[in-house]
Structures are given as C-alpha cells and as structure tokens.
Write a structure and sequence with these properties.
- This protein has one domain (2-251): BirA Bifunctional Protein, domain 2, CATH 3.30.930.10.
- It is 32% helix and 25% strand.
- It has 9 helices and 12 strands.
- Helix 4 crosses helix 7.
Length: 254
C-alpha cells in the first residue's frame, strides 16, 4: 500500500469537491489500494456545507460578506465551512487499512492528533478538545460521519465558531483551529479538513505545515509518503462531476 501525496491546486469549489470525491471513488490505481492526500486552494471566496444539511439553515448562517461567494454542498458531513481564510486538505484512507476500520470518532481523533503535532512543529501551540459539552456527552456512543460526535448531538454548526470533540484548538485559549468531516464508502474513508489561518497565526510557512502534516500522517498510517503527479481521471469524469456539484439541484437538494 502506498501513501500518495498529490500536488497542490487552486480550483473552483465545485471542482475541488469533485476531485476529493474522485480521489476516493475513481482514482486510477493499477498497483493496489493507496492512501492519498492533497492540500488545495480556491479560485474565489467559497463556502461549503455538509451533505445532509438543509439549504434553508445554511443560507441563514451565511454572513453578509458572503454575497457573491461560491456555495457548494460537500460529499462529506459536517456544518458550514468558510474557506475565505482557511488551509484545506483532503485525505483518503482505503478500505482494509486499520485506521479505516475504526469508529469515526477514533479516526477523527487520530488524524487531528497528527495535525496537532504538525502545527506544534511549525510553532503553533495546539491541543485536541478532549471533552464534549455536557448536553452532548450522553449521546457520544452514536456513530457519526459528520465531525466526531458532539455536533451530531447538538445539530449542525458553523465551523470555527465552536470546537467539537477532538477538534484542534489553541493550547492557551481553547479557540478552534481545525475541524474536518468524513465520508465512508465501500472504497474507504474520505476526510475533508480545514485549518483556520487567523487562529493559527504563529504558522509562518504553510508549505512547511503541509510537509510536517504529511510526515505525521505517514507515521500514523505506517506508510512512506510519495509525491505523485495529478491523476488522469477517466475522460470527462471530473468535468461531469464538477457540473453536478455546481448545479442548483445539488446545492438545494435538501
């Protein structure tokens, strides 16, 4: 099994969501299952929201400054994420890997511990939120593919306004630095994660963070990271899926 690190790219919100999904579902892979990672950016201001969220709730949470920004429903769960000042990544763990087999809350904790270590190596003191709020604790045995479990108990959230269980937070203030959402399919597990740059102000070099995070993920997965060219998806497949994610019918499906 390989750990393939794809090149960073800038794209539209719909194209980014399509690429993440294809990393999991359609990646050409003659040599067997691979874990895959990519960090990426946005062509223009963008917001994404979880697959199961209702569009009415989402629109009610958007700030006035979001007018004109792209708004796209993700393939993963979770709440509303503002990508205007974030550092974004996707991670695929293939079916059969030990980390893919564990409960969502445990895979969430493990990936965020790797990110915490990478942030600390780049000068940003960070910790994991270790406890749910009291009103959420009673439901923590509920399996959630959204974040880690707290948000499943309390309903959808606006990312970076409230830390959930095993989110990455500032070690001193407890302010949320990073969150993620997950999707599990027969092919494996997809993470879509986001680091809020203003909350990680002590990180001076984001390429250094990428390298540190990849190194920590390689240790977590027990695999050697390998820089890999951008994949050749099936002809027209990425474009077609991008159109689906950009369509009003997809965005307003719920």
């Amino acid at each position: 099994m390989k750990f393939e690190v794809l090149p960073a790219r800038l794209d539209s919100a719909a194209a980014n969501m399509a690429a993440d999904f294809l990393m999991l579902r359609r990646y050409p892979n003659a040599g067997g299952a691979s874990a895959r990672f990519r960090a990426y950016g946005w062509h223009r201001p963008a917001f994404t929201f979880g697959y199961s969220q209702k569009i009415g709730w989402v629109r009610a949470q958007l700030p006035s400054a979001a007018e004109g920004a792209e708004l796209v429903r993700r393939p993963t769960g979770g709440g509303l994420v503002d990508h205007r000042e974030d550092w974004t990544y996707a991670l695929v763990i293939p079916r059969g890997h030990e980390l893919e087999k564990v409960r969502a809350v445990e895979s969430y904790r493990a990936v965020h511990e790797a990110l915490r270590s990478a942030l600390a190596a780049c000068g940003q003191p960070a910790a994991l939120k270790e406890r749910c709020e009291p009103e959420a604790a009673a439901t923590m045995e509920v399996e959630s593919e959204d974040l880690a479990g707290c948000s499943a108990a309390k309903g959808p959230t606006v990312c970076f306004t409230r830390a959930e269980l095993y989110d990455v937070v500032d070690a001193a203030t407890g302010a949320k630095i990073a969150g993620a959402a997950q999707k599990r399919t027969k092919e494996g597990l997809l993470f879509q994660g986001s680091v809020w740059r203003p909350a990680a102000a002590k990180v001076r070099d984001w390429e250094e963070l990428r390298e540190a995070f990849v190194a920590e993920l390689a240790k977590l997965l027990g695999l050697e990271a390998e820089e890999t060219p951008w994949p050749d998806f099936r002809e027209g497949e990425h474009e077609a899926l991008t159109e689906q994610y950009a369509a009003q019918e997809w965005t307003e499906a719920r």
